[in-house]
Structure formats: structure tokens, C-alpha cells
Amino acid sequence: MTTTPDVLALLERELPGRVDTAAEALEAARTDRSGHRSPAAPLAVVRAGRVEDVQAACRIAHATRTPLVTRGAGTGLAGGAVAGAGEIVLDVRAMDRILEVSPADRVAVVEPGILNGALNARLAEHGLWWAPDPASKDISTVGGNIAMNAGGLLCAKYGVTREAVLGLDVVLADGTLLRLGHRTVKGVTGYDLTALLIGSEGTLGVIVGATLALRPLVRGAQVTLGGFFSDVVAAAAAAQSVTGAGHVPALMELMDEATLAAVRAYVGPELGAALPERGAFLLVQADGAGAAEDGAAMAALMEAAGGAVTATADPREAEALMALRRSAFPALEALGTPLVEDVAVPRSRMAEMFARIREIEARTGVAIPTSAHAGDGNLHPVLVFGSAGEVGGEAGTAIPEAVWEAAGELFAAGLELGGTLTGEHGVGLLKRAFLRDELGEAQHALQERIKAVFDPHGILNPGKMFTPDAA
Amino acid sequence: MTTTPDVLALLERELPGRVDTAAEALEAARTDRSGHRSPAAPLAVVRAGRVEDVQAACRIAHATRTPLVTRGAGTGLAGGAVAGAGEIVLDVRAMDRILEVSPADRVAVVEPGILNGALNARLAEHGLWWAPDPASKDISTVGGNIAMNAGGLLCAKYGVTREAVLGLDVVLADGTLLRLGHRTVKGVTGYDLTALLIGSEGTLGVIVGATLALRPLVRGAQVTLGGFFSDVVAAAAAAQSVTGAGHVPALMELMDEATLAAVRAYVGPELGAALPERGAFLLVQADGAGAAEDGAAMAALMEAAGGAVTATADPREAEALMALRRSAFPALEALGTPLVEDVAVPRSRMAEMFARIREIEARTGVAIPTSAHAGDGNLHPVLVFGSAGEVGGEAGTAIPEAVWEAAGELFAAGLELGGTLTGEHGVGLLKRAFLRDELGEAQHALQERIKAVFDPHGILNPGKMFTPDAA
Fold first, then answer.
1. Which chain B residues are closer than 8 Å to A419 by Cβ?
2. Residue A355 DSSP label
3. Using the beta-carbon criterion (under 8 Å), do B199 and A188 form an inter-chain contact?
4. Given 3.30.465.10, 1.10.3130.10, 3.30.200.20, 3.20.20.370, which CATH number is that of B98-216?
5. Fold that domain A4-93 belongs to in CATH
6. For the segment B120-131, what is each residue's pLDDT rounded down to a tens digit?
7. Has domain B330-425 been given CATH number 2.40.50.100?
8. For strand B206-213 and strand B165-171, is the pairing parallel, antiparallel, or unpaired?
9. Minimal Cα–Cα distance from A434 to chain B, Å?
């Protein structure tokens, strides 16, 4: 094993001008938006500007057995890009070029550091759209979206990131550059390594380029529905009645009583006065050619389920309804430190999951206001603790025991209802201890063996997704 | 290594009543619809009725190092289910139960042997639909569709099989049962092994169950457009103009001059009189809420591109147009022995690919009438040779050298235009010699190492997808 100074010297020799060891750069790489902070600063930040830089960094890491953590904008919610002592941070944020937009093939070829929102602004000029729509889209990178298989608000209708990527250029641990996938709509030559890399959280390779499948921008007026219900069970039943009738809304967002109350307080008395004193909120949007007809039918179903429904095709009124949903997270941050969870359950079990969350709140004393992407059964229970502004404390120390306990119970409840630990945020550090619970021992072992095929020395983002070896 | 009689004895002891060694059973397993026939009959056909049967067969194959070829309906077009000397055939056709249809979760849980068409008939009773739509759907199994990542006519709008599968139950080579994926719409826990298994052609594991993502049946009238063009270049340009304008037709099928001429002869003078003397054909269909408007806009674009266009919302008239497309393959079979190819190119290169095919015809003297799923750039050049009814001759002997040469040139041309060897039929035996050309050496080696993780003794469908070891 090469000692630390040697690794630094190697990096600086091979990557002149690209190695940053300034204290603030190292400090920034210790956290992301998960609330985790590594116990110590990493070795160096390599600011890659091109594929060859990534290859050089990987070769050095591989040869010296030095852990390497790839990082984009650092907006992850699971600690996947958090770097610690002795680790090289490979920052690909500067690799942000759009290499090609082809309206004829409906593809874009991009570098990983481009922001989702910046890409979509460019694509809109061509009447095109890359559908992955995480809430972070204006501040998160396309490479990060791919590494986590990001979801968002529009997945039930428009799919997750995996469905929007045709090919990937990937640098392996040893520096080898591979071109995976294809540029065509269809292609079944060999194993689908593109899909395997999507959501692999930086543990199998470094994404240095992507060929993205685009959609035409959806044309025509949108119809937005805001429904207020007596409680979250009624709102969840309304959501179920909409999907059960065969509708596929563009988005369908649910906020429980505690979240809506926080939003009411957050938006202030003037706007808050328009909201009911108590109850839950269901936001639904129809788009495309049948939007008017679909919107009317869904509004009727929501009313039949006991909702007080506002329906609008006016963009300004729609924006006011959307703003309620967007306020949910800032409103909860104002109450304390939020740990955002991400379980997904089969749609039909959503009401049960809400009931379980209430039980866990009662048992642990932790407040867990919850919102959900109701179209796809993906819940975001937010465990709120302490006072506002504590995000980014020392990992595992700032988060009280009762919160960890509540989180563990949430995961167990989600799995028990036929769900999954994480719908869209990833495993990272946050859920690695629970990975075996979902996968089972045999699949867990198989996944570790696949990891070893790509990265025999275990240098790529070690300790993320999988728990570190007991040794 | 255990000798052959021992393997048979083991199978008969562990799987009483399930081992078929009748000559006709063994003979049937030597072929599929690719035209390949193995040089000798396999050892035995195990007719699995339940998961435990599959596990027992795998354990025996694993312990005795005996090759095992999983087989559904045998409708593959790449030789993926062809079995030969010394091999166990694992027939899962009898595992054909629909275990659950959940309209609330929009999923179905099925065994692999159910036919796609039979499943969809059942789903239609619930207003639901499993979208994968290979031409073989009435005779091919869901398990086979998944093993090949089947495509079909509707992919540009409704996706390929990979997008319609949430989870898989898989038996590994050593008999271990794994449950991969999830029942939820979203889920990012660990590597996406479900996606890795889809399209793996029986080389990584045996699919014994699947959780399928369903769609609501598309409501409303369809609009069907039949366009006749002077030649295939004009028809391809019309297709490009339709997608370039942002339309996403449900299907868009192209037939070149030679295919249309064969269809005209095949349907007989009465029906054939309605078709133009020469030219190419473009079939387009719009569905869903905007069908009428979309259909009219697409018809206008096709006319502007020089087409004579029939537009209809009448199901009977639409059926007459669809029948032309469906007649293409039988019409070519009437001319000789067809070897159906399956290259896909970026949409924008489709006209170029047609030009290359004309050059290859001229150079090799092999007739190559070609149709295409024009919405996704997937071409089916059909190499026609000999006389009608020769399908299923001895592998590699019945197919003339000039045909292999032409096929090789087709693959090379497809790759040169940025395409792929196979859009939807798979690699199997037919294209394994070309796999390295598309993947490159480094990716090819990586894929072989992944195969070894799942199947360390190489017993699962050996010689398919990858070329056998030189040893």
C-alpha cells in the first residue's frame, strides 16, 4: 500500500492543476443533503475536466488501493457522495458539456456534470424534454440523477431515469473506458450493463458520458386539481380511486395533516387563510391531448371520495396549488431538523403505510409528517427532531437514538407491506445497514460478487450501499 | 464429470414423471424459429411444473456439469432455445399460471410459461394491458419475452419488455431461488438485477416468476393511416418527418418495394388490385385521447412527403391496412427460405441503412426485402434463399455461404451507422460470432465475468450469446 503523501504526489504529477487540497474544498466534500458528515476530511478533490482526467484518477486509485468517491453537485439525500479520511474525491461537475442534441433521433449526448434543469432549458428550444424530474432538478446533475436512478413527481406517467438513458460511457476502477448501451431506441446485444450501472451509486464505475432518450414536450393545456380531504386516509382513498379508474395523471401528490399544517404556518396568514383549518391535501395534474376530459373525470372521483376540489387550467392558479406542494420541505425545515425518508409500497398499501407511520410516531415520540408521490406509492416520511438549522451535524451523533429507531421501524413496515427501502433516493450510507433485510442473504452476496467483477480492489465508493467488511 | 446415464438416472429419481426422453420430444428441442437445428438430439426434456422442479433440475445440472437449456414455446428467432447433444432441456411451458392480477397496484404476477396473448386476454377483462407486443405474441411465452427483452410494433410509444417488468423470481445455476426487484412502481435498493436478467437469454438464471407492470387499456378510437410512396427512401423520409414534428405514433411500420410486391402477389389478384403497382408502404396508427387530431396532422405530413394516404377510424378498414403488414412475413416465406435479420439504427440513419441493404443485395446476389419498425429504427431485412419451406435445415449447412456473407455485411453496416446487431430478437446462436464487434473486447470480457458470477460452471445455455471457449 502506498502511503498518503505518495498518492497526493501521484495525483499532482498526473493531473497538474486539477488537484484541490484547500481546506474548504475538502470540507465541502464531507457532506451532502442527507445530513451526514464524515468524521474527517478526504485526501484531495480532483476536479476532472475531461474523460482522460477521470481515467488517470482511477488508475492511480486502483494502483494505490485508494478509495475514490465520485461527486457531482452533492445534492444526494442518502450520503452517497460523502467522502472521508484517506479518500480521493473525483468531482465531475466541470464536465458539463452538452455534446449533441439530435431532434431527429430524439437523443442528447451529454457529460455527467450538466445540471438537469440547465439541460432541459436547452432541450426546450428544440421542443424536447428529458423526463427525469427529481425535486432537486435545478441543482442536481444528470450524472447524479443516473447514478441514483432518480425519480421525482412524474414517474407514474413518464418513468424513472432508467427508462430515459440509452447508453453510458463509463470509466472502470482500473481506468478502462467502456461504451455501454446504444443510441437506438431498441437494442438487445449482450447484457444490459447500462441498466446495471443506473442506480449503482458510484460503486461500479464512473459515468463520464450519457446518451439520453428524449420526449417531445407535452403539448396543450394542463389541468391542475387541488383536493382538500378530512384526513390522509380519505385523501389516499381518493388517489386510489383515481388510479383504479384507469387514469394516469402526470402527477399526483399527497400531503398528510401534519405536513399541510406546517405549510399553512409557513406560507403566512394571508395565503394560509385560503387553506382549511385541518385535513390532508391531494394535488393532481392531467396533461396532454385528453387533459380537459381526464381532469374533469378525476375531479369528479375526488369529490365522490369526499374532497373539496379546485380545478383549474389557468397557469397562475395552478402555480398557487403547486406552490403548496413545493413548500412542504421548507415548511418542515422551519420546525426542526428533517431526516427525509423514502419508502415505497404498492399503491394499494399506501393507506396502511400511513397508519403504520402514525403508530411509529406514537411509539417513538418522533414527529413524522409525510408526503407521498401517490401515483407510484412512494412516501417521504420526514422525521423531524431538534431545532431548525441543524442539518449537516456529525454523522450518527446529531441524530437522536429515537429517530434512528423510528427510521428502522419505518423500513421494516415498508418491507412488511411488500415495499422497498428506497423508492428514489438510494441506499448510500443511510440505509446500507438494512440492505440485507430487503435483498436477502443470497442476493446480497451475489450483488457483492458483481461489485467485485467491476472493482476488484473495492476502491469505488467503499462503504456506500454495502456495509464495510467487518475486518 | 458424471456420465450421461448417471445424469438421466438422477433426473428421473429427483423428478419422477417429469423427464421426457421420447424421440419426438428431443427432436422438437433441436430447433426454434431461427432456422437453426442442432447437430444432435439433447439428453432429455424436463417438463417443470413448479419452482421446485426447476431447482432440482438446476442442482443436478450444476453438480454434474451438464448444460441446461431453458425453453418456453420455442418461437425464438436467434437460436437461443436450441438444444443439442448432452444437454438437458428445461421446458417451463407448463408453468403457465396467472397467480394474481391486481388492478389497484396495476401489476400481474405470473409464471413464465403463460402465453403473452393468453395473459392479455385475461387482463383485458380488468381493462388492463401488458404492453410488450412481439409479432409472436399469440404463440410466445411471457418468460421467453422477458428472456429476450422482446420488442414489437408498439415500442416507440409503449416501451420494450424491460420497462414492463418490476420483479423476477429466478433460479440460479446451483438451484438457489432469488426474488429480484419489487412490486412497487419505483425502487432503487441495490443493483438492478431485474434489468440485468431481462434479455439475458437463459444464460444467467431460469425465470420462474414475474411481477409485471401493467397499463390501462388505451381508450377511444384509433386512427390508422396507410401511405403509399414511390420508393422506400420517400417512405422513410415521411416517417422521419412525422417523428421530427414531435409525434409519437402508437405504431409506424415501413415496407420496402420488394416486400410490398411480395405482399401484392401473396394476397391474390382481388385484394392486390387495391395496391399500387410499385412503391413502398408506410402504416401509421394514432391512439389515445388525441388520436383524431394527431392522425390528421400525421396524414398531412405524409402527403406533404409525397404519399397517397388513406386515413380511417373504421376498425374494418384499419384491419385491412394492418393485414398488409401482417402478410409481409408469410408472403416472403412463399418466395423461399427467409432468414429474418434484426438490425436497429438511429432513426435518422434509416434511409442510409436501406441504401446499404440495396448495395449488399447487388454485391452478394441475395434478395433482401426489408420491413422496419420505423418509429424506432429497427429494420428486419429478410434474406431469402432456396425455395419455400426449407426452414429448420441443419444449422450452418442449409444456409448458403452468400447468405452468411450478406448477413455479416448487414451487421457491419448497422454498426457503422451507429446501430446495433439486434433490436429485439437477441443474439442466441445467430449473432454470437459478432458480439465482440459491437461490445468491444473490454466489455465482452466484463460480460463473461458477470456470467461466471451467476453460473460458475457455465452450465446455463452454453454457447448462446457468447462463442464457446476455443478449448
1. 182-184
2. H
3. yes
4. 3.30.465.10
5. 3.30.43
6. 999 999 999 999
7. no
8. antiparallel
9. 10
